[in-house]
Amino acid sequence: MSLKVLKFGGSSLADANHFRQVAEIVKSDPTRHYVVASAPGKRQGNDTKVTDLLYKCYALAANEEDVTKVFDEIKQRYNDIINDLGIDLDLTPKFDRIREALLHNTGRDYIASRGEYLNAMILAKYLGFQFIDAKKVIFFNEDGSFNSEKTNEVLREALSEHEYAVIPGFYGSMPNGTIKTFSRGGSDVTGSIVARAASATLYENWTDVSGFMMADPRIIDNPKPIKTITYKELRELSYMGATVLHEDAIFPVRYSKIPINIRNTNRPEDKGTFIVPESDDMSDYIITGIAGRTGFSSVTIEKAMMNTELGLGRKVLQVLEDNGISFEHFPSGIDTMTVIVSTKSLSEKRADVLAGICKNVNPENVFVEENMALLAVVGRGMVKAKGTAARIFTSLARANVNIRMIDQGSSELNIIIGVDANDYITALNAIYNEFVK
Ligand code: ADP
Ligand code: ASP
Ligand code: MG
Asked: Atom 12 of ligand 1 has which residue's CA nearest to it?
């Protein structure tokens, strides 16, 4: 029996017209039972997401500055939707409570979460579905990690009581009842959690693009869409900056192998991308996709014969661990070792890290290079194809891009390339054109 869980992103619920499109999509298929809603996103390029307005209000209030102007803007966003749709819902008491909470500096997460809370309430009313507050069905542990067992049990029970329901994305509650959010873009994770608890046959993730593209459409003009991508490939790409789906959204559905279908709310006729547990179905290209991010630094340690020195790598990593820094990659040679970390995480601890490495491993030289971008070339087809790395390097050389680091994942699912951040866009274009055009 088919049962679908749908998640609509912020741009899909940005204004009344989008609500109409969403209702048409939901109502056109009776197996679309549970809907996860984001806060209203951007209506056009220079607009501000309601979530960002809420964070702004919180910051103003914490600074004891007046929130009226920004808060009125938020109220206007919701009231415009309600009035345009002509639904009988007065959010005044809700707004008053949020304003009150702002004045009392109630949690930042609580304030941010109200974006999805109010939008889901409007959507539930408009669709005639039950509203289920995420606070009552999504739980975190004391240490802030997601409590999947309790959530699954309580949410499953709650869903079984309602055939059709809307659940706000992005947040849940701590053991003491206060609100906690996932990281930004977290409504994708809520959708996945609901899909698991509902034992859904499909998790439809509705956004503003017709699926996952082979590269970021904001950088590559009109990139080719990906028809099918595996959970693992998606993890690699979303971790490296392909933000279509939150990088953690795979975990809840992975248990039950529920496929995810990325769809475009503005073009519901497009089939979008299927994200599946495994696939033998090869794509038209050797690579599945490319993604990348800037903001990395490398810490290079030089010492003659370091490859023979037992425990050296561990000692280097220990210094990072002691300073609360996680590493991204760790390529090494006979006499050198490089650790790639995010520039942000290193910046405050730089002096301590360098001093710690000098003390722990007594190197001949240790230095930091900033301004690095990492690109991930990902594809399940790369294992079988010979010469993929050679093609990547040749295309970069042709584009005059100097490679600062190379790391191939042991599963041969991805090749990571470090380049100067100034070369990032040139490098992305060069690799895309090599494999796709
Ligand atoms: P939502 O608000 O629906 O959650 P997001 O803004 O989080 O939507 O994600 C969709 C956006 O992801 C697209 O508008 C696009 O700009 C961006 N994006 C980045 N990389 C890719 C990619 N490889 N394919 C498609 N979209 C991408
Ligand atoms: N509204 C939240 C954000 O902007 C969560 C989401 O959209 O998924 O990050
Ligand atoms: Mg998103």
From this structure: 244
* Domains, the chain: 4-208 (3.40.1160.10), 289-435 (3.30.2130.10)
Q: Is 283 in the pocket of ligand 1 (CB under 6 A)?
A: no
199 three-class SS = coil
Q: Which pair of structure tokens corresponds to residue 144?
A: 């802030």
Distance, CA 184 to ligand 2 centroid (Å)?
A: 5
Instruction: For residues 265-277, give the mean pLDDT.
Output: 96
Establish whether residue 238 lines the binding site of ligand 2, counting it when its CB lies within 6 angstroms of any ligand atom: no
CB 8 less than 6 A from any atom of ligand 2: no
Please determine, for residue 408, whether its predicted confidence score (pLDDT) is greater than 90: no
**What pLDDT is attached to residue 383?**
83
Report phi then psi at 101, rounded to 5: -60, -40
Q: From ligand 3's centre to the CA of 116, what distance in Å?
A: 13
Q: Of all atoms in ligand 2, which is nearest to the CA of residue 246? A: 8
Model pLDDT for residues 388-403, shown as the tens digit of each residue: 999 999 999 999 999 9
Reply yes or no on whether the pLDDT at 255 is more than 90.
Answer: no
Output the residue whose Cα is nearest ligand 2's atom 8: 185
Q: CA-CA distance, 120 to 159, in Å (whole number)?
A: 16
Q: Which residues of 255-280 are buried (b: 16+ CB within 10 A; e: fewer)?
A: eeebbbbbbbbeeeeeebbbbbeebe
The answer, yes or no, to whether any atom of ligand 1 lies below 6 A from the CB of 216, is yes
Distance CA 411, CA 380 (A): 9
In a mutational test of the pocket of ligand 2, which residue from 7, 48, 49, 118 has the highest number of ligand atoms less than 8 Å from its CB? 49
Residues 332-346 have pLDDT tens digits of 888 899 999 999 999
The predicted model gives 81-104 an average pLDDT of 96
* pTM for the model: 0.90
Substitution site in 111, 187, 190, 238 for ligand 2 pocket (most atoms within 8 Å of beta carbon): 187
Question: Ramachandran region of residue 211, left (φ > 0), alpha (ψ -120 to 50) or beta?
Answer: left
Cβ-count burial 150-159 (b if 16+ within 10 Å, e if not): bbbebbeebb
- 26 phi, psi to nearest 5 deg: -65, -45
Extract the tokens encoding 24.
């048409």
